[in-house]
Amino acid sequence: MIIRKPKGRVANKRKYESLLDLPDDLWENILMRLAAIERLTIAQQVCTTWRRVLKEPTMWHVIDMSDVRGLPDSKVVQHVCREGVDRSQGELVDIRIDFFATKELLVYVANSVKPGNQRNVEALAISKSLPALSHLHLIRNSMTNIGLEAILDGCPNLESLDLRGCFNVSLDKILSSRISKQIKDVKYPRDSLAGL
Amino acid sequence: MVKLKSNDDKEFEVEEAAVIQSEMIKNMIEDGCATSVIPLPNIDSKTLIKVIEYLNKHINMGKAAETGEEDDLKEFDEQFVNMGWEELFDVIMAANYLNIHELMELCCQSAADRLKNKSVRAVREMLKITNDLTEEEEQEIINDAPWAFEGPEIDDTVN
């Protein structure tokens, strides 16, 4: 049987036997500032408290995999990313993947996210990882306005954007005028798909 | 002025403008519950002095941007978190209790920065953590994620 330390020890205890006496939610606050890869490769091996904290789905709402320079093996990065996505238990709201984003990985991420969040995963991934993008076809993509706005924010160099079949996007006046200002060549959700 | 009392019975006077950075005390003042001394049973005087030092420095944060004192504040923050782990954790607990968002951010970030790129052994030594994982659990970690043991170069020093 595992006996857990009581939560929320008082701060004035003079000598910490171990510095683990912080309550779990404060450890969460600290450990979520570590890169995803560090949480999974180092932190979860430290002790049971950290291992428990790192299993909380809230720890994995945001997965930032953009800073993985100097890694010898991009396979490790892929594993870390998948494990982080699994631990989010579908609650993933933001994921940042850079150069190592294979198609398989994007599909994996997209499939594991709950429907409410899922629709924008590809759009968010694109908006964050491809800032220099100039031509984008997102035909029949499931994104909503959230995803579209993320792309407009994250890809300022877009010259053409094909949104045909993206029926979850609803273009109001503001969004339409933003698109027409920013992008030269636009195909709208309801434009004909003939010729594809 | 608002009077705060630490758990070792020392009283401190703090300007209201400084102390309302604590959401907890701000609420107390708004509810009219801060007429006399506010007792802080979770905070000792040593920690409270640090917290007050922070609050006083960070009065009128918004104005800092206009008057070009941002760099000054940044330098202060860097110096401020230059403390031992135990002291840092005392301040984190106090900031959490008093609900001072910016101070929590500063201290938790500092804690995370110290842990960055450290090996498992170094982390345990820094934080005086005894390995309490059972052999089964350790084996489980390896089985679940064999790739985790092929990670990047790590720092085994404890500074």
UniProtKB/TrEMBL annotation, chain A:
Residues 16-63 form the F-box domain. Pfam families: F-box, LRR_At5g56370. InterPro entries: F-box-like_dom_sf, F-box_dom, LRR_dom_sf, LRR_FXL15/At3g58940/PEG3-like. SUPFAM superfamilies: F-box domain, RNI-like. GO terms for molecular function: SCF ubiquitin ligase complex binding. This is F-box/LRR-repeat protein 23.
Automatic annotation (TrEMBL), chain B:
The keyword Transport does not apply. This is SKP1-like protein. GO terms for biological process: jasmonic acid mediated signaling pathway; protein ubiquitination; SCF-dependent proteasomal ubiquitin-dependent protein catabolic process. Involved in ubiquitination and subsequent proteasomal degradation of target proteins. Together with CUL1, RBX1 and a F-box protein, it forms a SCF E3 ubiquitin ligase complex. The functional specificity of this complex depends on the type of F-box protein. In the SCF complex, it serves as an adapter that links the F-box protein to CUL1. Part of a SCF (SKP1-cullin-F-box) protein ligase complex. Keywords: Ubl conjugation pathway. Belongs to the SKP1 family. It comes from the Eukaryota. GO terms for cellular component: cytoplasm; nucleus. InterPro entries: SKP1, SKP1-like, SKP1-like_dim_sf, SKP1/BTB/POZ_sf, Skp1_comp_dimer, Skp1_comp_POZ. PANTHER family: SKP1. Pathway: Protein modification; protein ubiquitination. Residues 1-59 form the SKP1 component POZ domain. CDD domains: BTB_POZ_SKP1. One of its GO terms (molecular function) is cullin family protein binding. Residues 102-148 form the SKP1 component dimerisation domain.
